[in-house]
Write a structure and sequence with these properties.
Elements lengths: L2 H31 L1 H31 L9 H8 L2 H7 L1 H5 L1 H4 L11 H9 L6 H28 L5 H26 L12 H26 L9 H32 L2 H10 L4 H20 L2 H5 L1 H23 L12 H23 L11 H5 L5
Helix pairs in contact: 1-2, 1-16, 2-3, 2-9, 2-10, 2-15, 2-16, 3-16, 8-9, 9-10, 10-11, 10-15, 11-13, 13-15
């Protein structure tokens, strides 16, 4: 890599870090005037970034478990992005500190609905702050422990450690999935402790995994265009990635549709509150954006075989899907604060810049410490000749 290109990348990463720091400062200032809005905005931004990071980790584990050689050229990128989990642990601290403001089950003294108070009382054994924090620590230990173990194996000797990586990926996937499911219950679904959906964790996984695949496509598009991936990556690799994006786009739409359909059919009062909030005021417009922007439009685009072979076109669709994942994260969190109206705040943008900027800077720093080409993997030559059907 030329000195000029290296210097440019460092300036970009430094800019992301500075923007992230300024975003966090803006959130702190906003919290002085409207603490609840600042914390909800921060949680929304955190859910957006965290779900993508865990989605990338799951893709990495699937690649190891299935010995997917086509993914080898993308593996260093995925390892760098999944290595953001330590900074996400630190960025979780404001959520833990402000939990008593965000989550109703921590301030029952301020509630007036007797039914809600009764529901929270029945769930007290699970919904209490100490147990909530201990569970969060366990989730992060699972995610970061597995990511670190896989990274160490690939750094030492990918050939000798291939069996160990496959075992680690296969063994760890159920635990990562369970941690993701319960984290989505604890951090998002418990914003309304009277509502529950057993499929909610699958919905969060589907959105985060799709966004994680899209993020890999975006980073590969940028780094490949800059010549940082060598001559290993070609159209077939992007096509394989695009096929997975299409498959999980359909899966996300399927889960979202059937969650709503089953709740509509059952018509149980304690189940419909989630959709009542999201069908009031201007919130239905956000739902329509998700239906058409997050599913219909990218579905029609990803059906194109030639598009998936072209990195710039697939990258453009991936950028769109990441934007739609942000809208989805907004849809998951903010209606619990603004029940009857869509009320965007400048703190939404400040929180997004803060969490995303710091995470991108950290990921870039981790990626800059190693080659983006898996030159130590003896299967790289086979991966370079991969042809997607």
């Amino acid at each position: 890599m030329s000195d000029e290109r290296t210097s440019r990348i460092r300036r970009i990463l430094m800019g992301c870090g500075i923007a992230g720091a300024l975003g966090i400062v803006a959130c702190i200032v906003g919290a002085v005037f409207h603490l609840e809005q600042a914390l909800y905005s921060y949680l929304m931004a955190y859910v957006f970034v965290w779900s993508m990071a865990v989605g990338v980790l799951i893709m990495l584990m699937i690649a190891h478990a299935t010995r997917a050689r086509w993914f080898i050229p993308f593996r260093p990128l995925a390892e760098g992005m999944s290595a953001t989990l330590p900074i996400l642990i630190i960025l979780f601290v404001p959520i833990a500190v402000g939990a008593s403001v965000i989550y109703p089950w921590l301030h029952t003294d301020k509630l007036t609905d007797p039914h809600l108070i009764e529901v929270i009382h029945k769930k007290r054994a699970y919904l209490n702050f100490v147990f909530w924090v201990l569970r969060a620590a366990l989730y992060f230990a699972i995610w970061w422990g597995l990511a670190l173990a896989m990274r160490r194996h690939t750094r030492r000797d990918p050939a000798a450690g291939r069996d160990a990586l496959a075992t680690l990926g296969g063994f760890g996937l159920p635990w990562v999935g369970l941690a993701l499911t319960f984290a989505s219950f604890d951090w998002i679904m418990s914003l309304d402790p009277s509502w529950y959906s057993t499929i909610f964790g699958v919905y969060v996984f589907a959105g985060g995994f799709l966004a994680g695949l899209s993020l890999i496509a975006i980073v590969a598009w940028v780094t490949d265009g800059a010549g940082l991936l060598g001559d290993v990556v070609h159209g077939s690799h992007y096509h394989a990635l695009g096929r997975m994006m299409l498959a999980f786009l359909i899966f996300w739409g399927y889960i979202g549709f059937f969650q709503g359909l089953l709740i509509y059919i059952a018509n149980e009062p304690h189940e419909v509150t989630y959709y009542v909030h999201r069908l009031s005021g201007a919130w239905p417009a956000v739902g329509l954006i998700l239906i058409f922007g997050h599913f219909v439009v990218p579905f029609l685009l990803l059906l194109s075989r030639p598009l998936k072979f072209r990195r710039h076109l697939l990258g453009a669709v991936a950028v769109w899907l990441v934007i739609m994942h942000f809208v989805d994260s907004y849809w998951l969190v903010l209606p619990e604060l603004h029940h009857d109206t869509l009320a965007p705040s400048w703190m939404d943008l400040a929180a997004l810049i803060g969490v995303l900027g710091i995470t991108v800077a950290f990921a870039g720093w981790r990626l800059s410490k190693r080659s983006l080409v898996a030159t130590n993997d003896p299967a790289l030559g086979y991966a370079a000749t991969y042809q997607s059907l």
